[in-house]
Amino acid sequence: MKQIQLTNKKTFQLAEVKNPELINTNDVLVKMKSIGVCGSDIHYFEDGQIGDQKIIFPFTIGHEGSGIIEEIGSNVNDLKVGDRVAIEPAISCGECDQCLNQRPHTCLNLSFIGCPGQRSGCLSEFLPVPSKNCIKIPDDMTYQEATFAEPLSIGIYAVEQSKAMNHSNPTMGILGSGPIGLSVLSYLNTLNLNDVLISDPLQDRLHIAKSIGCNKTITPDLIDNEQDKFLNSFDIIYECCGQEDSFQQAFQLLKPGGELVIVGIPPTLDHWQLPVGLSRRKEITIKNIRRQNNCMEKALELIGLKKIQTDKLITHNFNLEQTQEAFDLVSGYQDGILKAMINIS
Q1: What is the distance between the alpha carbons of residues 69 and 205, in angstroms, rounded to a whole number?
Q2: What are 54-66's pLDDT values in tens digits?
Q3: Max CA distance (Å), the chain
């Protein structure tokens, strides 16, 4: 089969490798149809690592995916050959204390597709996946839509873990108008929580935010230049870009008693610089978001009901042989790209 391998920083190679065999009787073999380029994939592409998770080259990345069942293991009863599925990339053990306490996303034995040292990624023609990590999708849902359910599920989880779910009319800020920030915005829209300001240095991304219903957009430098207008203005800030500058800015923007929800992943940063005095005096709550927890089904449902406008969020499509081009474009923020999909015929 064809497989895309990251052979060095910023360098992909198309390789011919042996088709994977089903070893686990609870696994299925998925013929991949669509793979999303995630911001974390870009970190691996540019830096060869995220924090202490470092790639040993060559390695196949990619964790947002969908496809069609090609083969099933002998113990698989809930799926059949030909089923169309979205893939949940986090594979939990089901036995540790985290799993037993309904926290499979923080499983102590977690294995994640496309994560160095754990499991090979989706940028392959075929991928073995536990059947429990495959969610059937309807015939009228495109593979690209199904793939977008994975980043959307993170946005859903971030909102559901925040005070927005128990606040009558929160004022909210989203720092970063990439796929995750816009997934947060999209889910807030479905809840009719519309008092949202979104910031990003890229006008193309702010235009997309406007197109899906956000009427307050701004660049980070304008926030800094007009601090008096924005200080102590927000009940909740969703940090969705993983940048130290936006982390610091959030403490200025939040009201006393506000909540900072950290969704973005810093590629190489080991420690946030916490403004101790300001965060203490304001009594700021800080909540970290670890991927998502059982939100894929809700994401797929919202997409199926056309409550999420994926057509405005998926901006570019490529074939497998164009993977290098896709990553170069996303990495360079070129051509107004937001979410790129790599499709396999």
Answers
A1: 35
A2: 999 999 999 999 9
A3: 64
pTM: 0.97
- E-assigned strands of the chain? 2-8, 11-16, 27-36, 49-50, 53-54, 64-72, 84-87, 90-91, 111-112, 126-130, 134-136, 172-175, 196-199, 217-218, 234-239, 254-262, 285-288, 314-319, 339-343
Q: What is the C-alpha to C-alpha distance for residues 215 and 235, in angstroms, rounded to an integer?
A: 18
Domain ranges for the chain, please list them. 2-152+292-343, 162-288
Look up residue 210 and give its amino acid. Answer: K
**Assigned token pair, 323:** 């993977």
Cα separation of 95 and 16, whole Å?
A: 37
Residue 47 has pLDDT above 90, yes or no: yes
User: How far, in Å, CA of 56 to CA of 109, rounded?
Assistant: 21
Please give the single-letter amino acid code of residue 103. Answer: R
CATH class of 162-288: alpha beta
Q: In the CATH scheme, what is the code of domain 2-152+292-343? A: 3.90.180.10
